Amino acid sequence: YKMADDSRFPDVDSDGSEKSEEMEIVVNVGGVRQVFYGDNLNQYPETRLAELVNCLSGGYDSIFSLCDDYDPGKREFYFDRDPDAFKCIIDVYYFGEIHMKKGICPICFKNEMEFWKVDLKFLDDCCKAHLSEKKEELEEIARRVQLILDDLGVDASESRWKRCQKCIWKFLEKPESSYPARVIAVLSFLFILISSVVMCVGTIPDLQVVDAEGNRMEHPTLDSIETACIGWFTVEYVLRLISSPNKLHFALSFMNIVDVLAILPFYISLTLTHLGAKLMELSNVQQAVQALRIMRIARIFKLARHSSGLQTLTYALKRSFKELGLLLMYLAVGIFVFSALGYTMEQSHPETLFKSIPQSFWWAIITMTTVGYGDIYPKTTLGKLNAAISFLCGVIAIALPIHPIINNFVRYYNKQRVLETAAKHELELMELNSAEEKAAGSRSELEDLSREGKEGPFYSNRIKVSHSDTFIHLLSEEKHYRTRLQSCK
Q: Which residue segments constitute the domains of the chain, with CATH numbers given?
């Protein structure tokens, strides 16, 4: 309710004799009442609760600029905010720090802190890490949504060449954009498999042919298939490079470097075969060509472009550098200790296979990893006991970091699925709100046209973002606030 005049505020003398430090105020947040004293609130004078202590003397406008409602009889301020978040925020007045309870959305909690004008520096470090992770997720969702919107949108001001570049880029890089794009992705995947199979089959002696000089070489049919596959990879890479929005970033991308390594050896070996014989001996040319052919194994990594599982595994391993480092450190310490012990214990045997500690490193590696080739083995009793302890320690050292690495993989995989679903959900809400806005705009435009006597089409290309719980501020510069108007009295 509204107040008729400012004279109805009790407990405030005309000369302002009441001290704000001794004042008691009642705050009702979402139906939950809290009593505060001025000396506590004035520790942080810039916060909204501290401003309530001194707002009574400012009259009607001052009070209702800070709260939703006010009861002068009870001196009770009403706020239509989240009471659970408020219970966490008021800890700053008693403990000097804030902890976010489990189950509260970090972004919503941040918005509540901004409303109560409490600085984020009072949030505990563990809660800040959770908030940063949530921000990264929303930024990733916003990035994915923006990419989809860029693909759907058509800028009439762009040149024909720019529009053609976008079409080629979507056609080759985004299989989900259309049915022909999916067909191209499947064909590219098949060419990678065929090329890998041809590389393996070409090494079978029964399928090789002998040239005039008696040297074995690949069958001409397999060579032709290899040439066709390289032609496909070359055309695909060139088209993707031409249509790329950022060519420098494209050229330095890891997967694109793999593509170059898969294509380049063919052309280098072709050049050496036809031109290198004039500059160097034929045997040297053949050795260089054979070495370059080994580099064809790089094309198997092209499968990662078409496999989300391989991409997830790569990112999970990147996130697991700490665990992998611990694994290597454990193994390195164990290899050094057990190889030195094995060398010392085996010196008493006349037919010892442990000639030196560096040579014993190989034995320690294959023992701790439970491979055990048997080329080097202990012959004394103490040496065998040392070997038994070494492979037991190796099993333990390898098993310890495996669980965190698997957890990182599962966490990242589930996170990617959640982000993908959230992006689709956000797009659906944006499309729904856009349709509602367009319908409302059409009605208002028709009313204006009928009132002004004009005729003409109405176009509305604005897309309004949704007011969902996962609202993405990065997609709009507008300010959005909650509009719950429940009564707290």
A: 24-146 (3.30.710.10), 162-306 (1.20.120), 311-431 (1.10.287.70)
Q: Whose CA is closest to 488, among 67, 33, 30, 64?
A: 30
Query: 481-484 — which CB contacts under 8 Å span 24+ positions?
Result: 484/80
Q: Where are the alpha helices (DSSP H) in 347-486?
A: 357-368, 381-399, 402-452
Counted residue by residue, the chain has a size of 489
Residue keyed to tokens 């040149």: 159
CA angle 195/272/283 to nearest 5° reads 105
Query: 135-181, pLDDT tens digit by residue?
Result: 777 777 777 777 666 666 555 566 777 878 888 888 887 777 778 88
C-alpha 229, offset from chain centre: 33
Q: Stretch 57-71: mean pLDDT, rounded?
A: 82
Enumerate the H helices of 36-159 as residue ranges.
Answer: 38-41, 48-53, 60-64, 83-89, 92-95, 106-115, 125-152
To which residue do tokens 């302002």 refer? 16
Beta bridge partners of 33: 28
If we measure between CA atoms, which residue out of 255, 259, 266 comes closest to residue 292?
Answer: 266
The pLDDT tens digits of the residues spanning 433-468 come to 777 777 776 666 656 645 554 444 433 343 333 334
Please say whether the beta carbons of 209 and 219 come within 8 A.
Answer: yes
Cα–Cα separations (whole angstroms), residue 11 to 19, 322, 423: 11, 62, 54
Q: What is the pLDDT of residue 337?
A: 94
Nearest-5° Cα angle at 254, 250 to 255: 80
Give the distance, in angstroms, between the CA of residue 316 and the centroid of all CA atoms in the same chain.
10
CA dist., res. 109 & res. 105, Å (int): 6
- SS3 of residue 56 by DSSP: helix
CB 262 within 8 A of CB 236: no
pTM value is: 0.54
First to last CA, the chain: 11
Query: What are the structure tokens assigned to 86, written together?
Result: 């408020």
Contacts (Cβ under 8 Å, ≥6 apart) of 39 = 21, 22
Q: What is the CA radius of gyration of the chain?
A: 36
> What would the DSSP string read from start to end of 293-334?
HHGGGGGGGGGGGG-HHHHHHHHHHHHTHHHHHHHHHHHHHH
Torsion of CA 360, 366, 370, 376, to 10 degrees: -60
